[in-house]
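Tutorial, part two.
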Amino acid sequence: MKKILIYAVIVVVLILFIVVYIQYDKDMHAAYQRVSEGSEKFMTDYGEIEYSVEGEGTPVLLIHGAGGGYDQGLLMGNNILKEGYEFISVSRFGYLGSPMIEDSTVEKQAMMYTQLLDYLNIDKVVVFGVSAGGPSAVQFAHDYPDRSHALILVSAVAKYMGDDVPTSTKIVNSIQKSDFAYWLVLKIFRTQFQTFIGISEDTIESLSSEDKEIVNDMLAYMHPMSPRLPGNLHEAAIKPLAGEELSKITVPTIILHAKDDSLVDYEHAIFYKENIRKAKLVTFDHGGHGMVTELKDMHQEIKAFLEKYL
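Running the prediction step on this input gives:
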């Protein structure tokens, strides 16, 4: 009887594993197909860069955050800026189809953005940097002011974070080393993972059904995770511009940040505001890192800001 029970348990576990794996394999196939079919690649003088162009209107260079890629950039552009823009969304070093290079600095990244824009015959852009995409967005505005209409920084990193990587980020990086681990965590511990990436439980509870869809898209657009791992691990090595250099930026700048951002502290926004001369700071009391609950207000703030300078 005991042996029969053991065999029964083994059979149930095997069946459960097969069911889980079939669903995982289906989801990963769709994710890999999505990212491989949605972009193009361009070889710059420094290395290859992946990008995607979408929409019509004022050109906007979309620069994604940690765990992202060109797909995350497009998602943010469509949810925050909406219509009336031509989105040029890139994958930064180590994300999806953009490999790491020997000197993967924000200066080199900005140079590659410029060569891509030359290739696309785009003279001037609005630069839009989200989270860890902030440093290379700022670098571009600093190095190429004649090619920048304006600079938009959302929950943007302003300081070197390599010496003080939060425990939550270390946990996220461990999960993101495996496609399966990340997929399984989202299935079982979705709420807990959301708190690790800066979306507090209070924010989660206040989400509307529309907001929840956007959060689900944000998490889904991190699939597949393993092709993004080199970029994720590189984030701690990124060295943004120092305050003295920030003061040389002449491009009109808007900074949007939530006070309860647990992933990129609000002090980053203060640092940008204090050092970029033409900067406007828009502060939200709530919203966390993703500021999903504030998307409508963010859209209006950015729209009004851009109308002054376009």
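The radius of gyration is 20 Å. In part three we will examine how such features are distributed along the chain.
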